[in-house]
Task: structure prediction
Amino acid sequence: MNVPAISRQIRAFALSLGFELVGFAPVLPPAHALFFRKWLEQGFHGEMAYLARTADARCDPQRVLPGARSAVVVGLNYAPAVSPVTEDNARAVFARYALGDDYHEVMGQKLQCLLEFIRQRYPECRAKIYVDAGPVLERDLAWRAGLGWFGKNTMLINTLRGSYFLLGEILLDIELEYDHPAFGGCGRCNRCIEACPTEAIVAPYVLDARRCISYLTIELKGSIPEELRSKIGNRVFGCDICQEVCPFNQPRSHSPLRSAPTGEPRFAPREVTLAPKLVDLLRMGEEAFRAAFRNSPVKRAKWRGFRRNVAVAIGNSKEPDALPALQQELLSETDTVVREHLEWAIEQCRL
Ligand code: B12
Ligand code: SF4
Ligand code: SF4
Result:
């Protein structure tokens, strides 16, 4: 087998599937495994117990695919053509990655096609496809494959493209021609640390997930700590603030690819995710929520978690006009967590 030629073919095919970033890395213990272990020790993962449970596998890819030799790592741009951010605090902001269809499915299907292409050349090869959910330190692997370097906001940043891209990978027991780890850095910039409304970036490269709006609105199942609620603003699902302020995400004439809109049609924003009225989201029943967010990342929050988030955002709007809707929803709400957030929002709107 001609490894360099096959590696070139795989890269070309992955690019043709729409992955803007493609790299190959040898499968080795992650270079930053100790950072990850220390992060867990400090409890920064909060209620994401699955990260601690799978820590040994994350730090040793041989446990994930015994005999693994190579990883094909891909990045898919999700930057929308229009910013979802609105200053109108009666309207909601969704994180960019959640405006359209679920990336797990979109990227999973593309990676499946890529694996079939590889199997035409190596019919016997063993492989595992992962997008986000597998026991893999994806940023470490992507760094090694040359896709980007670590920003102080902890995002993997590509100097030419910025950080609005998602990661996925195929682990394989075959050899490929490897890329060099990415090289780059933030220099003296600290914009993300200063801009984070909840002070979740507790030191450069270290994020306390328990304070991060992304964690609070997506991963946390219970009550959002009261002292953090007012800092969430009108973000109802995820947060991009530490990316929005990053110079590497600002389009420049010498770097037109930075934040260039995605070419993936399934990532196109749905009407319901582009600055919808908070009150309309609150009035959405469970069936309507399921229909609106079918195949969307937002379904991860579940209806109750989403209502909790919307209640917080309405409270932050301090809009007395929202009181009738809040009071009406409170009458029929049975979930204690949602009820408590509705009551908090009512208090805020009465102030
Ligand atoms: C848990 C998790 C979260 C948690 C914790 C995030 C975090 N920063 O740790 C929460 C829920 C908060 C979260 C939020 C988001 N997430 Co998330 N998340 C994950 C997940 C599942 C695991 C990450 C993890 O292991 N964290 C623990 C830390 C310690 O590890 P790490 O993030 O890999 O960081 C590495 C480096 O920072 C490095 N390191 C640590 N210290 C130091 C110090 C120095 C000096 C250096 C050089 C390096 C270094 O070592 C670490 C180990 O590899 C990954 C998918 C995966 N399987 O890896 C997605 C992933 C990281 N998330 C992703 C995304 C898109 C997001 C959000 C943008 C979503 C949103 N808009 O709301 C935000 C961004 C918040 C942020 N600033 O990170 C993408 C990131 C893509 C990219 N370009 O970086 C991933 C890769 C999912 C994917 N498949 O695309 N996420
Ligand atoms: S995603 Fe938002 S809350 Fe989380 S670290 Fe970035 S700016 Fe802070
Ligand atoms: S905002 Fe500045 S410090 Fe933060 S990741 Fe971007 S370049 Fe690095």
About this structure: Strands lie at 21-26, 70-77, 93-94, 127-130, 149-150, 156-157, 165-172, 201-203, 206-207, 235-237. The pocket of iron/sulfur cluster (ligand 2) is lined by residues 153, 196, 198, 200-201, 207, 212-214, 239, 241-242 (CB under 6 Å).
